[in-house]
Design goal:
The chain contains 7 helices and no strands. It is mainly alpha-helical. The protein has one domain: Up-down Bundle (Methane Monooxygenase Hydroxylase, Chain G, domain 1).
Amino acid sequence: MAGWKRSVRAHHEAGHAVIARVLGINFNPNVPVTAHADAPCVVTESAGYRARTLGIEAELQGHENDAKVALAGLAAQRRSHPDQTTELIPDEDEGDIANAEAIARTVAVLRASVPAPEDGVLRDPTILADAQETFDRLVRETDALIGKHWPAIKRVARALENRDSIDQAEVDRLIVLIERHVTR
């Protein structure tokens, strides 16, 4: 993949990577961050799953952070290429959005303190409304995170445009470099 397509993909993956690290979420060490079309999206650990033994508030925050990471790729992609009307990574974009929507439903069910439906389909209108409000809020919060960390995302995207892959340590180094520069 070359040119603007690689740039779009690099910004998408950089969005996932930077927001994951800013939120304290680790990558799968066996799956490097790459802008190749045939490579998987950034694979992170589940903060919600990891926090499930720490209490309901920590679990809710963990799930919400997972949703923000899922939404960050498309948000960064759209910010970097706002005139791009066709989605370049439709399966991933749809999967990222579906993942964030599912997480919002999980959060709403946890907040309602009711068991998740066995068939996985929410029917309670109050919980469904809470899930939609949660999703909409998470989209706004993700957009704000993308704006706040845009210099780091651009730097990571640039690295992805020029290299086959980068790992978590390199992403962390690039974030620290840019944030140290911005705070001076």
